[in-house]
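Data card: per-record layout.
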Amino acid sequence: MADFNTSQVMGVTFEITTRYTEPQAVELDAAGLICSAEDQILHSVVAVRKVTKPFGSSILAKRALREIKLLRYLRHENIVGLNDLFISPAEDLYIVTELMWTNLQRLIDRGPMEDAFAKYFLYQILRGLKYVHSAGIIHRDLKPSSILINENCDLKISGFEHARLQGPQMTGYVVTRLYRAPEIMLTWQKYSAKVDVWSSACIFAEMLQGKPLFPASNHADQFNQIVKLLGNPPVWIVDMITNSNTRGFVDSLPKCQRRDFADAFPSFSQQANDLLERMLVFDVNERINARDALSHPYLKLYHDPADEPVVKETFDWSFNQAHNSIETWKRVVYKEVWKFRTLEVKNGLAMNMSMKTKEETVPINIVSTSDADGNSLTGVDDFDEILSSFCQNFDAGDMAAQYPTAESITGSS
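The structure for this 413-residue chain is written out next.
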């Protein structure tokens, strides 16, 4: 098997392949522990995130599969890139990505940003969202801490654990509360990618003023603050509320007129306020989308339609409809990791995963590695053999027969 080193970082057991050394804590949150580590092959510092016990339940295993598939699929300059995947002997999932200098929340905590910085960051957020939304994918949890920044002010969106394909019925409990669009707060079960635009607007205003746009302690207070800025929602929107308690609360709010944004945010430029107004609209049909927001005069300095790509192939979400046992999901996750190794890494197709040596590209293995001359640093062949053996029955159809829905939910590579 591949060689692993075990460390204790912030009281958390961190078990990573010997390719990565000197793990140092970067962040510990609900998504897991993130450490920086030295990549002994690429000679660079990367981010390694531990997903603890992804096979603890069917829900957790399905979530892990969804994130892996999304990270493999989404390849864009403003989306965090997947470098590596491996599963430790303790069956924890480790996801390796490029390491960014900081996140947007830490920059905002320093105080209001200059307009030039907020403008550049907003442009990159919207550029990334245009790409994500073109695949029919909604991020659903956009917030400053999930937006990563490097020392050159390059921005990458992360945190796709709760991302979903836009569908006829959605869950309402998504998006960190301060950035949650009103249609989600009103318990609607149908919403669009424009919930991400609302979140982006909240982040945009927060960058410029150095504090949350709607700093409330609970949902009721937050919605009340939204109404004080935008005025009461139109009657037809209120009529769509199906929850009687929510409807009663909205009906009880005092009548408010929409505020002039120039008065509400006097330090913002006229163009910044105009774009913010177009992003903060109750009526989702009137709310601007990411594509059109990019062409707003406020972002004219950076807007280039030829350099704002969309996806080339539709993402296959069919696996998300399956209901399987933990063991089935576990096998599918293992297969997805194996596919990443064999189809992307070994063919040199994974982003940032190949080295140039003597005018020749040397593919980099993800669990173990070899140096530029091909000398094995760990037991990669053993691990490959184990993974291959684990999946070969699946490929031969034996596992598909035992788990009829398993093959269909792996999707094509």
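Known properties of this structure: The longest helix spans residues 115-134. The first strand starts at residue 4 and ends at 9.

See the next section for split statistics.
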